Amino acid sequence: MTLSDPRLPNEPLILANEAFYRMSGYSAKEALGANCRFMQGKETQKSSRNTIRGDFAANRDTKVLIRNYRKSGEAFDNFLYIFSVFDSTETPLFRIGSQFEVPALFRAKAFQDHASELLNGLKAVNDSGELARNQMIETGALVGASVKSVLMARLETLRFN
Which of 95, 97, 67, 68 is closest to 80 using CA atoms? Predict the structure, then answer.
């Protein structure tokens, strides 16, 4: 989970949890103060970047599957859910990001044969291969929405204390 400040130039990260550091391979010293774009690389989808920019411009929550890169250079697919916390004038004060790594079985050579057999078996049930991916994205969105509800409730509690 990350927290960025859209009021600062380049919207830098101002807080991240240990799970983010483990997933990305970056330390707090390397990540804090930088925009999350440092995790993008040559295979990061332009459409995903455009979705994020468009949602931010429209003050909408965003959820997107994006190819990111760890500090080691290893690519991974990241289901990213970002919601904004607004002030009374609807100006974003913070953006809270939840990241969920989407496993890629095909990256490990040991799983390739098994994955091919599995995919052939699943093909009869799901020719497009999209159903499982969409369910994973929907599950990530539900988890992100739950996180948002908890954090918003906590922010409201802090506001009145």
Answer: 97
- Measured CA angle at 148 (ends 22, 80), to 5 deg: 45
Report the alpha-carbon distance of residue 76 to residue 107 in Å, rounded. Answer: 9
Render 9-29 in DSSP notation, one character per residue. Answer: TT--EEEE-HHHHHHH---HH
pLDDT in 10s for each residue of the chain, 161 residues:
999 999 999 999 999 999 999 999 999 999 999 999 999 999 999 999 999 999 999 999 999 989 999 999 999 999 999 989 988 898 999 999 999 888 865 444 434 554 455 555 555 444 444 555 565 566 666 566 666 676 777 677 666 65
Report whether 35 contacts 12 (CB < 8 A).
Answer: yes
Q: Whose CA is closest to 48, among 56, 115, 140?
A: 56
Calculate the alpha carbon distances from 159 to 59, 83, 84, 152 in Å: 22, 18, 16, 10
Other CB atoms within 10 Å distance of the CB of residue 71: 14
Distance, in Å, from the CA atom of 1 to the CA atom of 52, rounded to the nearest integer, reads: 17
